[in-house]
Amino acid sequence: ASFDYIVVGGGNAGLVIASRLTENPHVNVLVLEAGPSDSIDFNVTVPGLDLTVTGGSIVDWNYTTAEQPFLLNRTIAYPRGHVLGGSSSTNFMAYTRGAATTYDSWAALGNHGWDWNGVYPYFKKSVNFTAPTVDQSFIVYDKAAYSNPTGGPLHLSYGGYVEPISIYFTEGLANTTGLNLQPGEINDGFPLGQAYLPLTVNPTHMTRDSSSTSFLGVASSRSNLQVITSALATRLLFDPKKSTTVTGVEYRDAAGVLHTVSANKEVVISAGAFGSPQLLMVSGIGPAAQLKSFNIPVRVDLKGVGQNMTDHLFFGPVYEVTDNITTFNQFGSNATLYNQYLQQYQQNKGELTGAISSMSGYQRIDDSILTGLGAQALSALEPTWPHIQYEIIASGSTPVPRPGNFVSTAAVLLYPFSRGAVTLNSNSTSDKVTIQPNWLASPIDQKVAIWAFKQVREVMLSQTLAPIVLNEAFPGLQAQTDAEILTAIQTVAHPIYQASGTCGMKARADGGVVDSNLRVYGVKNLRVADASIFPIIPSANTMAPTYMVAEKAADLIKASQ
Ligand SMILES: Cc1cc2nc3c(=O)[nH]c(=O)nc-3n(C[C@H](O)[C@H](O)[C@H](O)COP(=O)(O)OP(=O)(O)OC[C@H]3O[C@@H](n4cnc5c(N)ncnc54)[C@H](O)[C@@H]3O)c2cc1C
């Protein structure tokens, strides 16, 4: 079979691209998705069950990282959606764009058109924004950040439920001297402060909106779009006469049978920060030495493929709270309560209509503090670029499990200096890649993490939180020195799954994999478009930037038709 375009990966980015390209009835598109349809798992739909579709679920790749040398050699679960919609079907739904200055710095790397003014319209293009309900009048927002004359397919709303712990934490972040994070809109390019976050939740039935329910939803009836699920792309196909011209894709279907499909125009790889570099490498595009060690013939020696992995690290103390603070711990382990919540959910009400985490604070650390920490390098970021994100999760546990009602606080390093890599274990996409994020490898990251941990603790032990906080369940107040705090961080730190940069959009000499048109260096008819292309990680969660990249990718492809 032959198509104009083949999109590999029906995930967050891939379905946006397929949907936009097939707006033109004269263009036909095939999507190959390794995972099943998203209708396979009811929990995918329910915002409040988001934690159940991450680790260990049937719609996840269930990756585990390599041993983390700077996190006490732990190996850590790393979920990724293995389903239509990809990680947008399994994530925590927080829609955040980050600082305008990040995108200006993308453009400064030579990526013309990727500055904030160039990308802001693409962020807006995807979305259909519903303002907070009357019950949510405490939420500060600016609808201009979402305004879009035609209305995008992706619903954003504030869900139907905000956990009480978020409300307390929000007040704590505002009242604590030194933080003083005030509420405001954070998706207008100027995120410093704090906000309840818009969620990808369709307010009509309080269901998750993913790239599948939104973008594929509007396109699925088009005769020029074909989507094949349970189709694992195994390698790219090339013109036998021109070894660097892509002509199609080989994939394996659910029965294990290999098929080939050809692309008259282009192949677009949107297999995510792990899948995209893997498919490039098994097809002969990547660091030559690594390819040779698996007997893969080298087509293009592209050193940056799989390198420069950048990721946000998430860590903080855990608190035991009073029973009136709703948490996942309560209903996750209590069938009666769980069924009661499900019944309420069927009427569009109650705890399950919200995500497990619903607010974030964004802080810029003062230059004087950075100097004291030996982290002056962070001062160089443009002034509106936040360094730390604060969050609270209505769920928690202690490393040595004990019963109780817990919440996990978190600081997130928004501009980490540590870099990792994704490397092959074989010449086949059937084998998982090795994921080595190398979190906290940078001494600057370690110092900033210790400082941020202390800020979270100050908020949680403040007068504002005193009515509901019973004790610090982990690490406990005996941990006070920097060394003790670093050990505590290393014991519990984990990702929030924002892997990026493994096919960076920057100069080839600087480890770039794609140019500013998302074309792979040295290869014809091939682009990459997903979170792997971020040349610098946004100061935000990565779903909204992924939607933006995909929208812009679709226009770049249309422009070259
Ligand atoms: C549990 C979790 C929670 C998160 N929470 C948030 C959040 O609240 N807010 C936020 O902004 N971000 C969040 N993120 C991050 C965000 O979801 C991702 O950064 C983003 O969705 C990545 O999009 P992508 O298109 O790059 O990759 P994906 O959406 O992962 O898509 C890649 C697709 O390619 C498919 N694929 C891979 N290899 C192949 C192959 N060889 N052949 C065929 N198909 C293949 C995969 O199955 C997948 O469907 C979270 C992520 C996770 C996993």
Automatic annotation (TrEMBL):
Keywords: FAD, Flavoprotein, Glycoprotein, Secreted, Signal. Its main location: secreted. One of its GO terms (molecular function) is pyranose dehydrogenase (acceptor) activity. It catalyses: pyranose + acceptor = pyranos-2,3-diulose + reduced acceptor; pyranose + acceptor = pyranos-3-ulose + reduced acceptor; a pyranoside + acceptor = a pyranosid-3-ulose + reduced acceptor; pyranose + acceptor = pyranos-2-ulose + reduced acceptor. GO terms for biological process: secondary metabolite biosynthetic process. Residues 272-286 form the Glucose-methanol-choline oxidoreductase N-terminal domain. The keyword Signal applies. Its EC number is 1.1.99.29. Its cofactor is FAD. SUPFAM superfamilies: FAD-linked reductases, C-terminal domain, FAD/NAD(P)-binding domain. FAD binds at residue 83. Pfam families: GMC_oxred_C, GMC_oxred_N. It is found in: Secreted. GO terms for cellular component: extracellular region. Monomer. Belongs to the GMC oxidoreductase family. PANTHER family: DEHYDROGENASE PKFF-RELATED (PTHR11552:SF138), GLUCOSE-METHANOL-CHOLINE GMC OXIDOREDUCTASE (PTHR11552). Catalyzes the single-oxidation or sequential double oxidation reaction of carbohydrates primarily at carbon-2 and/or carbon-3 with the concomitant reduction of the flavin. Accepts only a narrow range of electron acceptors such as substituted benzoquinones and complexed metal ions and reacts extremely slowly with O(2) as acceptor. This is pyranose dehydrogenase (acceptor). It comes from Crucibulum laeve. The lineage of its organism: Eukaryota, Fungi, Dikarya, Basidiomycota, Agaricomycotina.
